[in-house]
Amino acid sequence: MRQRLAQALAEHPGAIVPSRVIDDAAEAARWGMHGSPTLLINGVDVFTAPGSAGGAPSVAALREALRRTTGPA
């Protein structure tokens, strides 16, 4: 996920990407995370629906999610 996100963020040079390790399901629920890995954009899990398995999205999917949620680069 980190490599793919770095590629997608090449078009967003000012983006700030904090990283956090979540240790348990209760903490994940507090943050609104539904799968692993989880990417929150503006506090929203943009890829994983509740109850799904998750998985790292493609670079193209990451770029599209960034475009949808943050506007053009």
**Average pLDDT across residues?**
83
| Contiguous helical run count | 3
Give the H and E element order: HHEEH
The best one-word shape is globular
Helix content: 25-40%
- For the biggest β-sheet, the strand order reads 1-2
How many domains, in number, for the residues? Answer: 1
Question: Could you tell me how far the N terminus lies from the C terminus, measured between alpha carbons in angstroms?
Answer: 20 Å
Strand portion, in percent? 5-15%
Radius of gyration: 12 Å
The computed structural class is mainly alpha
DSSP, total strands: 2
Extract low-pLDDT stretches: none
Major sheet description: 2 strands, antiparallel
Offer a concise description of the structure.
This protein is mostly helical and 73 residues long.
Task: Describe the protein's architecture and organization.
By secondary structure, this protein is mainly alpha-helical. It has one domain (2-70). It is built from three helices and two strands; from the N terminus they run H-H-E-E-H. The chain has helices spanning 2-8, 25-31, 59-70, and strands spanning 40-41, 44-45. A two-stranded antiparallel sheet has the order 1-2. A hairpin with a 2-residue loop joins strand 1 (40-41) and strand 2. Helix 1 (2-8) crosses helix 3. The two termini are 20 Å apart. The mean pLDDT is 83.
Itemize the secondary structure elements and their pairings:
Elements: H1 2-8, H2 25-31, E1 40-41, E2 44-45, H3 59-70
Antiparallel strand pairs: 1-2
Helix pairs in contact: 1-3
